[in-house]
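Exam revision sheet. Question 4 asks you to relate a sequence to its structure. Input first:
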Amino acid sequence: MNAAEGTRAGAERIARAALTRVIEPGDERGGRWLRTYGAVGLLRRLTTPRGPEDDLPGASPARLEGHRRRAALADPERDLETAAAAGGRFLVPGDPEWPRQLDDLADARPVGLWVRGHPDLRIWALRSVAVVGARACTPYGAHMGAVLGSGLAEKGWVVVSGAAAGIDGAVHRGALAAGGATIAVLACGVDVVYPRGHAELIGRIAEQGLLVGELPPGDHPTPSRFIVRNRVIAALTRGTVVVEAEYRSGSLVTARAAQKLGRFTMGVPGPATSGLSAGVHELLRGEGVLVTDAAEVVELVGDMGELAPVRRGPVLPRDLLAPAAARVLEALPSRGTAAVRDLAREAGTSADEALGRLYELHSLGFVERVGDGWKLTYGALRPAGMERDAASMERDAAASGLDPAGTRRGGA
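Answer key, structure tokens:
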């Protein structure tokens, strides 16, 4: 970059820093002005005596006057110095550290990003997942948020959230506890602690991760700023996971923004009776994908071959039987004995085949011979994986001619 280019880039950065105090985050009309006039040209129109040719398309006189008042009060050099004193920096489109996926927001793209922390934002954002949810969350939601945060961090993913109370805080803490990477996207200046109760958490994120915001130093959040902040969370990451959310929830705004941008949208199910799960379940009824742990999230957003483990119940001894032996075992009644020819008929096989399978089942402990008949052992009667009380064990034992220990009454 030659001197002239460096001067232009410096002027562009200064102008964009000033405009973060003029244009509200997510203002698409302001984005169109930026695209049309450039940051330097737009700021000049707002800070010099105006003529009819200086009016901005789509801006009412009152709106334009408000922008002019803000522009007159902006002091970008001071803001840049304040950010630097707090360990921060200001990124603009075209910087090597600028996350290019934010360009998907088109005219709603941030004017610039104030960043606090040492890591490279662009590199971290390339392999990141957002996990968001309700502020007034349940213990279940807080647990799932922390588990997802730590699980994703352990798998080498950067965990992104909004540093709010509830799910967001649990997610950040989970990632930090695992020694992982986390980014907090704020609805205020990166030097502002909000909520106050998260002062320690935000300090830890600034030391170990990144704080990111569109608003200049010292600016405080408003309800609308929380909502428009969510589009940055959605655009910055490969996918968004919603843990708990009511029907009217900022977390669902993030999820819908992710869907519009072509990102993956996921939800963690909860009790059907919980209002905090209602919004998540509505998301899952649409294009959202149900996930229950970090492995399932990574299977969706990760690279080819990053598959979640196969989910299955315990393998029981009878699952390993050959099909013919399993049919004979299923033919045996739950009570009493059965003759070989009856078992052969029920199993759809010959008497000789049935007898051979019965001896095989006897060697495995499933059946025993009683005179000319065959019956199930106590171990074969007991449902796998179910806790049985003493009374039910005695009833089953009495019905099968066994004592509760599984041995035949009256001898071997």
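Marking note for examiners. The chain is about 45% helix and 10% strand.
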